[in-house]
Design brief:
globular; two-stranded antiparallel sheet; 151 residues; single chain; 4 strands; mainly alpha
């Protein structure tokens, strides 16, 4: 087998492992299970406070309806708070509540990003450039496929 095929197969395996970890990630909050999609929203709000539902939708590749339902659920649990924009009263931004911040910090190790950061911390120089170029091509291809599907 060619080196290129081996590397691509390895990439697919790693992607599948990350996907499996993401699907099975969960945490408990006040005796209720929080699912991977909910943890993703909390992690995103921890990284980027004061975002809108549409930002969650586009960043995490959820439909606006799905993102809205997740926000409603997390708000009802007291993990997210809605804040009106001072300049535009119709615009609502989302932030983590103190409980949401605590839970996001406790579960940050469950995110795909933290797994990649942990394992990829040793990449430097030429390796980083090559990997970045490869991932950019993959990302562009996936973005194109998602646009065709209307996501």
């Amino acid at each position: 087998m060619e080196k290129r095929e081996t590397v691509l197969e390895q990439f697919v395996r790693v992607f599948n492992q990350l996907n499996a970890l993401q699907r099975t990630s969960s945490a408990a909050y006040r005796g209720e299970k929080l699912y991977a999609s909910e943890l993703q929203v909390l992690a995103l709000l921890a990284e980027r406070p004061m975002i809108k539902i549409s930002d969650i939708s586009s960043t995490l590749y959820f439909t606006v309806s799905a993102a809205s339902q997740l926000v409603k659920k997390l708000t009802a649990r007291g993990l997210i708070e809605k804040k009106r924009n001072i300049m535009n009263e119709r615009m609502i931004h989302l932030v983590l509540s103190p409980e949401g911040e605590k839970l996001a910090a406790e579960t940050s190790g469950l995110s795909i990003l933290s797994r990649i950061t942990e394992s990829g911390g040793q990449i430097h120089g030429e390796e980083e450039r090559i990997l970045s170029n490869f991932l950019t091509r993959v990302e562009n291809s996936l973005d194109s496929a998602l646009r065709e599907k209307g996501k």
